[in-house]
Amino acid sequence: MPKKKVKKYRGSRTCGGGSHKNRRGAGNRGGRGRAGVHKHKYIKFVKLAKRGLYQFGKSGFSRPKNIGTEQINLRKLKSKLKELKKSGKLDEHTYKFLSTKSELNVGDLDRIIDKLVEFGLAKKSGGKYIVDLGEIGYSKLLGSGKVSRPMEIKVRSATSRATTKVESAGGVILTGADT
After folding, report:
1. What is the tally of structural domains in the chain?
2. Cβ pair 38, 54 in contact under 8 A
3. Facing residues of 128 across strands?
4. CATH of the domain at 101
């Protein structure tokens, strides 16, 4: 087995690094990383670049930040809810309840459907509640919670779980294509 190089330096104060001052910072090596490739490290840069081992400049790209439909919908929702509150169609409690939720679950809708009927944002005909979530400002219905009453809900999109829960309670969801 060959002799390890570190054994050669045992007992030496700086282990072959020259003066004890040499290994302190980046000044001993001409800066950190790509510093000086157009100045004092230019020859090294040219030689390595010819072999394809060094690339200078930026590489790749940063994906542009996209303002998603969720953020736009949230702005529209907040403004729609404020408008409904000013016109007297929502009370303070229902406004606070709805404004804290960026999306609406079927369980939440089941809890507040009577309030929505009271304010004229939903109708009740023959034991079935009819509500248009687009009027309130919601574009998607999610499937969390329990549904205990039959509802006919108009909304742009709904999850499959929401659809099955509403249909099992005797209701129907009319999505974007149906409305």
Report:
1. 1
2. no
3. 125
4. 3.100.10.10
pTM for the full predicted model: 0.56
DSSP state of 131: E
Element (H, E) at 170: none
Instruction: Single out the residue of 163, 164, 175 nearest to residue 134, CA to CA.
Output: 175
In a domain, 42, yes or no: no
Give the pLDDT confidence of 44-62 residue by residue, as tens digits. 888 888 888 887 777 788 8
What range defines the domain where residue 118 resides? 69-174
Confidence at residue 139, expressed as pLDDT on a 0 to 100 scale: 83
Q: What is the DSSP string of 42-69?
A: HHHHHHHHHTT----S--S-PPPP---H
12 part of a folded domain: no
d(CA 83, CA 64): 33
**How sure is the predictor about 71, in pLDDT bands with cuts at 50, 70 and 90?**
low
